[in-house]
Amino acid sequence: MANSTARKWRPAPAASRLTVHHELKVPFEVIEVDMNGQHRTPEYMKFQSFSQIPYIDDSGFILYETRAICRYLAANYSASGLIPTEPKTNALFEQATSVELTHFDLSTCKAG
Asked: What is the CATH number of the domain that holds 55?
């Protein structure tokens, strides 16, 4: 697999994607995105139609959403064991990721 390109803005959402890249030893390039309008340009929006961060370009395969990116990388490197394949263990993994999304994700935990 060629180097992937990871767009990032805020450190917290970027952390999980960058951690997976690091854990899998997948080379990547981080491109900072200016959130004062760069993410709303037609050039950017042809890759991420919601004008949000993140997305990756993996040798021409464009994918956005943090969890989808992490799972895609883990699936491409299935020998890594990051996502369990045994059904019960995988179910517990999915349960944990659902709990993380629902109860611990920074965007869902903002007070007020």
From this structure: 3.40.30.10
